[in-house]
Design a protein that fits this description.
The complex is a heterodimer of chains A (86) and B (132).
Chain A lengths: L1 H25 L3 H26 L3 H25 L3
Chain B lengths: L1 H25 L3 H26 L4 H27 L2 H4 L7 H19 L14
Helix pairs in contact in B: 1-2, 2-3
The chains are: A mainly alpha (86), B mainly alpha (132).
Chain lengths: 86, 132
Amino acid sequence: MADAIFIAAVSLAALSLLLAGIRLAKGPWAIDRTVALDAMTIMASSLIVAFALLSGRRIYVDVALVYGLVGFAGVVALARYLEGGL
Amino acid sequence: MAAIIGASLSLVGSLFFLLSAIGLLRMPDAFNRMQAGTKATTLGSMLFLVGIGLMRPDFLGRALLLAGFIALTNPVSSNALARAAHGYRKRLGAKLAPDALAEDDEALAAAAVRDAAAGSQAPRVQEGRHVD
């Protein structure tokens, strides 16, 4: 029961990652792409934690933590570059 | 029982992810997409991670750490993105009726002109915003 609900949750999260990827691919301006990239970073780090649960290895939670850090730094660097301050 | 509650919380969180992705696809301009893409993912990721932590209690500490980290950093990146998008607001076609940042910039420019006209006074110290 719990496994079936969790598989449905992971499938919905993967679908939303794919839909945000459509915005990343076709967004008319660089700002739209960066917003989509920000949302995709959060979804991907949550999905890495879900993968840690499904595979049963705790090390992937640390991978998700580091990926969240690096994604945040990347989005802020891109935003500062687009603003013209970098 | 805790596993079913955790899986249901994860399902609710992934529904918020789906809402944010649909908002990213269907909102008209970059500021509205930012609204959908950052707030909904913050709530969705917190629910998703707490759900996973309830399913496996040995993941709970790290999952809460990641959720708190996302709750702290997502508004910061949203703020940086909004400041970046404000520079392109004419090209983006965004309608910003109360534009406090532009009013602030105009007030700063008017104050600089007034100071230059006043001559060799001591430079004004701007409160609040850092002006390069």
